[in-house]
Amino acid sequence: MAFISKDFRSPGEAWVKTDEGWEKKKVLECGGKRKRHSSEGSCVEAASSGNGSGSISSSQVGEEEEAACMPPHYHITIRCTREIAGFNGLSEAVKRLDFRRSVRDRKRFHYICAFLLLVSNKGIASLPGSAQRQLLQMVEEVASHVNDSQQHPNVLRVLALKLDHIVNQENQKCWGKPLGSTYLWQEHVARIKRIQRVASQIEIREPDPQARPKLHELPEECVREIILCIADHRDLESAAQAWETMAKLVSEQRIWRELTRFHFNQRQISTILDLDKIKLMGDAKDWKQIYHQLRRTYGVSDDYQYAEVLALCRSCRCLFWPSDGHPCILDQSPDYKQRVEQAGGQLALAQPVPPAQFLKYFSL
Predict the structure, then answer these.
(1) How far is CA 348 from CA 38, 91, 315, 322, 340, in A?
(2) Cα 193–195–196 angle (5° rounding)?
(3) Structure confidence at residue 235 as a pLDDT band (50, 70, 90)
(4) Burial degree of 216 (CB within 10 A; 0-12, 13-18, 19+)
C-alpha cells in the first residue's frame, strides 16, 4: 500500500547541517547545543507541519532548540520479539549520549577512554563509516584534552599505539588497501597521524614555578590525605617510587586498609580472613596482602573504577548519565511514579552499565 505522510518523499525526519555534516535534529536536541552554519538553507525538514515547505530558518531552529533542551540519553532495545523489532546504532548512541564533549568531564574521562580501548581491541574498521568517524573524533578530543590539561598522557599513548596497530593491520588486507571508502580511510589516516603527533610531543610541564607550597613542602598529614583519595593500587605503587616520603606513607597499613574497605565489603573480607589465606604479622593484619588476595579472588568491580558510569533505566529502557538525568515515563504517570518512590526512588531502578556491557547492546 502507499506510504501516507505529510511529505511522501520521506518518513518525516528533520535534518540540520552542522560543521561536521548533516545530522538528525532529534540527535542534536538530545546531545546539547552544537555550532551550526549561519548560511541560509542550513536546515532541511522533510516533513513540515505548517506550510508544507521543505526548509525552516536557522532562527526557528535555535528557538526550538532552546525550548526542547533535553539531557543526553538514548533509548535502546534490550531484546527483539515478534511484536518489537529494534536496532541499536552505535554512532547515534555516541552522539545522543554526548560522548565527545564528555571527554572533558573529569568524572567521565576514564569511562570514555575505557570504551575507546575496548572498541579498538574489537576493531574499528569493522564498524560503519559514521561510527568510525565518531570514534576517531573522540580520540582526537582525548588528545586535545590531554595536551591542554597535562594529565593522563599514558592513556593517550596507549590509544595512539592501538590506532597505529589498526592502520598496519588494515594496510595488509586486500592487496595492501583497506576495505571500504578510500576517501574515508585517507581521512582516518590523517586524523590518526595528528593524534600520534600530539601524543609524541606532549611534555608534562610544571604549572607555575613560583607557586607555593610545592607537594614536597606539604606536611605528611596533607600528603596522607591525598594518598587516601587514590582508588587504584597501581597508582599507589607508582607514587611510592616517586618520592621517599610517599613510599613511607604508602607502606602504612591504614592506606591499604581503607583501599580494601573501599573496594570490598565486610563479608568478602571476613571470608578471606576466616579461610586463613593471609599470613598475619603477629597480631596485626597485613592489609596490602589482604587487598591483593581479595583482588585475585573477587576482582575489582568496574563501578569503582570510574567516577560516573552510564546507567540503564529499567522503566523506560533508556541509557543516561546519572548526573544529568533523563526524560522517563514516570513523568507522565503519577500513579506509577508514586509506586516507584515507595520502592526507593527512580535511582533504585537505574542499573550501572560498564563499558563492556555498553558494547554488548550493539553486538560488539
Answers:
(1) 44, 29, 11, 12, 8
(2) 65
(3) confident
(4) exposed
**Residue 291: φ, ψ to 5°:** -60, -45
Q: Which residues are CB-contacts of 334 (< 8 A; sequence separation ≥ 6)?
A: none
The secondary structure of 288-341, three-state, reads HHHHHHHHHHHCCCHHHCCCCCEEEECCCCEEECCCCCCCCHHHHCHHHHHHHH
Cell output for 87: 536496532
* Terminal-to-terminal C-alpha distance of the chain: 37
Alpha helices in the chain (DSSP H): 25-31, 58-67, 90-96, 99-102, 109-122, 129-149, 153-171, 182-201, 220-228, 233-242, 244-250, 253-263, 266-274, 287-298, 334-343, 355-360
302, burial (CB in 10 Å: exposed 0-12, middle 13-18, buried 19+): middle
pLDDT tens readout for residues 335-349: 666 666 665 555 557
Indicate the average pLDDT of the chain: 77
Judge residue 112's burial from the number of C-beta atoms within 10 Å of its C-beta, 0-12 exposed, 13-18 middle, 19 or more buried: buried
Q: What band does 176 get if pLDDT is binned at 50, 70 and 90?
A: low
9 burial via Cβ count (<10 Å: 0-12, 13-18, 19+): exposed
Q: Is the pLDDT of residue 314 over 90?
A: no
The DSSP secondary-structure symbol of 4 reads -
Report the pLDDT averaged over residues 60-84.
Answer: 64
CB-CB contact of 284 with 318 (8 Å): no
What's this model's pTM, rounded to 2 decimal places?
A: 0.71
CB 270 within 8 A of CB 277: no
